[in-house]
Amino acid sequence: MPAETTDTMTEYREQAVESERGALVAVLVMVILGVAGIFAVS
């Protein structure tokens, strides 16, 4: 039983890290696009 619970916890933690990384990448892309847009307008 303990082994199964730790497996599910590590799987959940890995999924959380992946979604966090995805959110970080999305924010970075938005910032880069915003800066590029400002330079394109000016």
Description:
- The protein is an all-alpha fold and 42 residues long.
- It has one domain.
- It has one helix at 2-41.
- The model has no long low-confidence stretch (mean pLDDT 82).
Short summary:
Helices cover 95% and strands 0% of the residues. It is mostly helical.
Topology:
Elements: H1 2-41
List keywords for this structure.
mainly alpha; rod-shaped; single chain; 1 helix
In N-to-C order, the SSE pattern is H
Helix content: over 70%
- Number of helices, where a helix is a run of at least 4 consecutive DSSP H or I residues: 1
Largest sheet: none
Structural class call reads: mainly alpha
